[in-house]
Design a protein that fits this description.
Elements lengths: L1 E8 L9 E8 L6 H11 L19 E4 L2 E4 L15 E5 L6 E3 L2 E2 L2 H9 L19 H5 L12 H5 L2 H4 L6 H11 L7 H8 L13 H5 L6 H20 L1
Helix pairs in contact: 2-6, 6-7, 6-9
The structure holds iron/sulfur cluster (SF4) and FE2/S2 (inorganic) cluster.
Iron/sulfur cluster (SF4) binds next to helix 4 and helix 6.
Length: about 240
């Protein structure tokens, strides 16, 4: 089938603002959007900029907005975004992050927010035996959140940063939950202080857009709500 890719372009060296450029591509319904972008890059316009690495939904580098929905180009099949011959697919860079070139965004702010929640196990107690043991049930409490590939699709889908640019965002908050819920972690107070803020868990208004787009099916909004419950329970415990 023949479709049109309507791609947002921007070159900081030559363009004052972004614009859309159209490319015709011959694709199979079972091709991925990444295949179509590679076709443009290889055979039509080598100047098109986008990130990709693994091409299999593992590295998280090809997050972009596809027909207004955030996701990975390598996990998006043409048949799911273009039903008929002649259809147009619009591709834009992720939102809320500065565009460096075409579909490439500067991820610095996204990673600063991720680092702010201390995304690592904190436990200074001596290890009994060879490792810190955990039951399967304890592990299941946060299992889905461990599969985040930091693609920033959720960050782009979330409407909160439009009004509140300091909001930590869904990915960082899901990771805060991941360590708060880890039975081996000992930094609960420190972690709760970070997320018990308007920029943290309380900034979330349950729009569920993050959960809808996450390519790893992480129940992000649910995890943020569980974090809110942890904050409340900790305060109740303090005051009793
Ligand atoms: S939580 Fe999901 S959408 Fe957000 S960065 Fe991680 S994998 Fe991507
Ligand atoms: S290229 Fe690695 S996730 Fe898509």
């Amino acid at each position: 089938m023949n479709i049109t890719l309507n791609i947002q372009r921007y070159n900081p060296d030559t363009d004052e603002e972004s614009y859309f450029q159209q490319y015709q591509v011959d694709v199979k319904p079972t091709d991925r959007l990444l295949d179509a972008l590679m076709q443009v890059k290889r055979f039509q316009d080598g100047s098109l900029g986008f990130r990709k690495s693994c091409a299999h939904g593992v590295c998280g580098s090809d997050g972009m907005r596809i027909n207004g929905v955030d996701g990975l180009a390598c996990k998006t099949l043409i048949k799911d975004i273009a039903a008929h011959d002649g259809d147009t697919v619009t591709v834009e860079p992720l939102r809320h992050l500065p565009v460096q070139r075409d579909l490439i965004v500067d991820q610095q702010e996204f990673f600063e927010k991720y680092r702010a929640i201390k995304p690592y196990l904190i436990n200074d107690e001596p290890v009994a035996g060879k490792e810190r043991l955990q039951s399967p049930r304890e592990r299941m409490a946060f299992d889905d959140a461990t599969s985040c590939i930091l693609c920033a699709s959720c960050y782009s889908a979330c409407p909160i940063p439009v009004e509140q640019p300091d909001f930590l965002g869904p990915a960082a908050l899901a990771q805060a939950f991941r360590f708060l819920a880890d039975s081996r972690d000992r930094a609960t107070e420190q972690r709760l202080a970070i997320v018990d803020t308007e920029e943290g868990a309380w900034g979330c208004q349950n729009h569920f857009q993050c959960t809808r787009v996450c390519p790893r099916s992480i129940l992000i909004t649910k995890r943020i709500n569980e974090t809110k419950r942890m904050i409340k329970q900790s305060k109740e415990k303090e005051s009793s």
